[in-house]
Each structure stands twice: as C-alpha cells, then as structure tokens.
Fold this protein.
Amino acid sequence: MKLKALIHPAEEGGYWAEVPALPGCVSEGDTFEETLANIREAMEGWLDVAAERLPVEKDRDPMPHQFVSEEEAADFWDTHSLADYEDFLEPVDVEVDLRKRHFEIEVDERTFQDLVVRAKETHVPVRDLVNRILNRGLVSDLA
C-alpha cells in the first residue's frame, strides 16, 4: 500500500507536510529535502504507535487486492482503520514538482495606495490590476 504525503510551502518560509491517511501525521522543515525526511520519520513514528495500540489478535476484514473505483476505496477506508492493515504498507519514493505561483515585488507606499484606490474604482482585485498594468507595459516595451 502506498501513502501520499502532501508537502506545502509554509507562509513563514520553509515547508510543512501532511499525510492525509494518517490523522495528525504532520511535519515541517526549512528545506524541501528536510521536510521530506521529517515527514518520513513522522510516518514511521505514527505507524509504530498505531502498531503498539493494536490488540495482539484482532479480527479484520480481508484487504481487497484492488478497488474498482475511488468510491469503493473511500467506502472501505471510511469503515476500517489503516492501523489494522499496517502489514500491507510498503515504503514509497516520493517525487514532488513544486511550482511557485506567488511572487513579491516591492513598491513604494504611495504607489501601493494609488493601486488600491484604482482597484476599488474599477472593482478589480489589486493583484489583477497590477498584472494588467505590468502586461501592458511589457507589451508596449517589446513593440
């Protein structure tokens, strides 16, 4: 069984990670690589604690070899605990392609205030207004 770890850029810098299939399994790091190592360690710890809490002999439903649909998988995991099926888990390699979509550009306070006023006048978010202005300026500079 494979577990998905989600790694997100943190607002304060660095990254944070979560494993949706393991409630409460989260970690963070200053770099992507550190965060990846930390979340792997957190996953191991989560699974170790879950294994310690398992009764020695526990009846469980057989693990399906394959789910026909995502809905079937969701129905199964809504009624079963992953901790009961730890012996089905396998290590996985994780590849993530982070694409930054947020850029910061410093502007003086007066320019920002003018942008806010113009955005309110035109009923457009400031970020959209800035993008329009920059695009127009770039097009005219390239022409």
